């Protein structure tokens, strides 16, 4: 049996656009994901978040389920378009939803953990110079974050400024798979810079407000990159893949500079880094209280002269999830050790870890998702090994509490430990939820 520390924070995670629905209710205006999902061909079968899990109306039931599972904390995100439906126009009715949700959580003794930005940029911000491409986005974001701190500051012990800046910049403005669907690498790096800058400015605003008892950090999706062979060229490919996925965000936040090797590589592609102004890196690297780590899988790369990153993915030997991502728990251990060694001794939380598998409701009305139990158990073993060696890991949030809108994959991929029947909005605790309940009760895994 593997025991976890006494106060280990067991949780689950969701995000606003993926579960709330009610996209036109109480003053909310469209986000870039409303626009993107309604654009032909952008999401699986044209799925949108219009209804999703109807969490906006069913939040009480969902908090009951959280209580049933016994989580200590619940990570959700706040929809910016509910709070500021137009530039400079605060919408108290939008804020009231989150106050109701938080009240329910506190009544059930569940710690609210809020992500300020989980990709649902207000469309009005995008219409003003491309959203994160416009340096004014920093100002708009700080106004939004400051209002949240004013209204909710002391009832939310853990604040996360951004969820996965890599996705909201590279995947969204560079690769084009996510909203707003641009395919311009220079834009991707400009967006990444302004997102990181907005993170730093929000942390400064948070500090100035001196909010008692609350902590602030950022959540990064980190994908360890391994060379396909011991050949020097494959090792170089892995270095660039690591810079692309990880160091481009870790270095500015923890070292106050962008990684030199990637600056050199990228300058050939995007030209001048004229969007980086004096003092920006100082702001981006203001001290934070914790690091959120989202871990799903690793990458294995071999050298490819023709690719921008000189790297080409090769499939790993492990089993894959429904997303096609290799299952590699040992890489989570490697990642945590590396973060501890090279970046920070701050508290860390695994703010997302989980998997999509083909889930189905069987005759007995249950969902026997043994693969998901196996996935979570193996990753918890890796986390426990890190903690056992003195690693400062304070908590673990399963992605996700419930099946939800999986971005470009729509509702075709199920990550929940709770099954959602989208026809009826019925929730069914999968076997993994029942298993996780026991893990939390015993604070240990077999
Ligand atoms: N091409 N491509 N992409 C490769 C890397 C993509 C990484 N995706 C994530 O980490 C997202 C994170 C997100 O917070 C959540 O909102 C998503 O639902 C989960 C599941 O997808 C994960």
TrEMBL record:
<feature type="active site" description="Proton donor">
    <location>
        <position position="164"/>
    </location>
</feature>
<feature type="binding site">
    <location>
        <position position="118"/>
    </location>
    <ligand>
        <name>substrate</name>
    </ligand>
</feature>
<dbReference type="GO" id="GO:0030245">
    <property type="term" value="P:cellulose catabolic process"/>
</dbReference>
<dbReference type="InterPro" id="IPR017736">
    <property type="entry name" value="Glyco_hydro_1_beta-glucosidase"/>
</dbReference>
<keyword id="KW-0326">Glycosidase</keyword>
<dbReference type="GO" id="GO:0008422">
    <property type="term" value="F:beta-glucosidase activity"/>
</dbReference>
<feature type="binding site">
    <location>
        <position position="399"/>
    </location>
    <ligand>
        <name>substrate</name>
    </ligand>
</feature>
<keyword id="KW-0119">Carbohydrate metabolism</keyword>
<keyword id="KW-0136">Cellulose degradation</keyword>
<dbReference type="GO" id="GO:0005829">
    <property type="term" value="C:cytosol"/>
</dbReference>
<feature type="binding site">
    <location>
        <begin position="406"/>
        <end position="407"/>
    </location>
    <ligand>
        <name>substrate</name>
    </ligand>
</feature>
<feature type="active site" description="Nucleophile">
    <location>
        <position position="352"/>
    </location>
</feature>
<keyword id="KW-0378">Hydrolase</keyword>
<comment type="similarity">
    <text>Belongs to the glycosyl hydrolase 1 family.</text>
</comment>
<dbReference type="InterPro" id="IPR018120">
    <property type="entry name" value="Glyco_hydro_1_AS"/>
</dbReference>
<dbReference type="InterPro" id="IPR001360">
    <property type="entry name" value="Glyco_hydro_1"/>
</dbReference>
<dbReference type="InterPro" id="IPR033132">
    <property type="entry name" value="GH_1_N_CS"/>
</dbReference>
<dbReference type="Pfam" id="PF00232">
    <property type="entry name" value="Glyco_hydro_1"/>
</dbReference>
<dbReference type="InterPro" id="IPR017853">
    <property type="entry name" value="GH"/>
</dbReference>
<feature type="binding site">
    <location>
        <position position="18"/>
    </location>
    <ligand>
        <name>substrate</name>
    </ligand>
</feature>
<protein>
    <recommendedName>
        <fullName>beta-glucosidase</fullName>
        <ecNumber>3.2.1.21</ecNumber>
    </recommendedName>
</protein>
<feature type="binding site">
    <location>
        <position position="296"/>
    </location>
    <ligand>
        <name>substrate</name>
    </ligand>
</feature>
<feature type="binding site">
    <location>
        <position position="163"/>
    </location>
    <ligand>
        <name>substrate</name>
    </ligand>
</feature>
<keyword id="KW-0624">Polysaccharide degradation</keyword>
């Amino acid at each position: 049996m593997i025991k976890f520390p006494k106060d280990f924070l067991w949780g689950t995670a969701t995000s606003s656009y993926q579960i709330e629905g009610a996209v036109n209710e109480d003053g909310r205006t469209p986000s870039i994901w409303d626009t993107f999902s309604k654009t032909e061909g952008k999401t699986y079968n044209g799925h949108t978040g219009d209804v999703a899990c109807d969490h906006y109306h069913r939040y009480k039931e969902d908090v009951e389920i959280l209580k049933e599972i016994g989580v200590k904390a619940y990570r959700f995100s706040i929809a910016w378009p509910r709070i500021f439906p137009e530039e400079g126009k605060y919408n108290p009715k939008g804020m009231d939803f989150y106050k109701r949700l938080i009240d329910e959580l506190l009544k059930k003794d569940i710690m609210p953990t809020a992500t300020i930005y989980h990709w649902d940029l207000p469309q009005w911000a995008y219409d003003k110079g491309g959203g994160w491409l416009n340096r004014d986005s920093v100002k708009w974001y700080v106004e939004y974050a400051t209002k949240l701190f004013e209204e909710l500051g002391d009832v939310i012990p853990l604040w996360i400024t951004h969820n996965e800046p890599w996705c909201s910049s590279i995947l969204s403005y560079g690769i084009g798979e996510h909203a707003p669907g641009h395919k311009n690498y220079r834009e991707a790096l400009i967006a990444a810079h302004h997102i990181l800058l907005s993170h730093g400015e929000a942390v400064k605003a948070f500090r100035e407000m001196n909010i008692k008892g609350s902590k602030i950090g950022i959540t990064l999706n980190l994908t360890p990159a391994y060379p396909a062979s011991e050949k020097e060229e494959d090792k170089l490919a892995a270095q660039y893949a690591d810079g692309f996925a990880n160091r481009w965000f870790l270095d500015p936040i923890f070292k106050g500079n962008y990684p030199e090797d990637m600056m050199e590589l990228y300058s050939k592609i995007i030209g001048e880094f004229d969007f980086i102004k004096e003092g920006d890196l100082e702001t981006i690297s203001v001290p934070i209280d914790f690091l959120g780590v989202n871990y799903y899988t690793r990458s294995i790369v071999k050298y490819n002269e023709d690719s921008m990153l000189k790297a080409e993915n090769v499939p790993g030997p492990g089993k894959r999830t429904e997303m096609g991502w290799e299952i590699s728990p040992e890489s989570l251990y490697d990642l945590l050790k590396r973060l501890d060694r090279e970046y920070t001794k701050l508290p860390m939380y695994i703010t997302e870890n989980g998997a999509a598998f083909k889930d189905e409701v069987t005759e007995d009305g249950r969902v026997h998702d043994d693969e998901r139990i196996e996935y979570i158990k193996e990753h918890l073993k890796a986390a426990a090994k890190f903690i056992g060696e003195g690693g400062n890991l304070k908590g673990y949030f399963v992605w996700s509490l419930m099946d939800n809108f999986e971005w470009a994959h729509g509702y075709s991929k199920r990550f929940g430990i709770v099954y959602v029947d989208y026809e009826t909005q019925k929730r069914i605790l999968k076997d993994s939820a029942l298993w996780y309940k026991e893990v939390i009760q015993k604070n240990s895994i077999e």
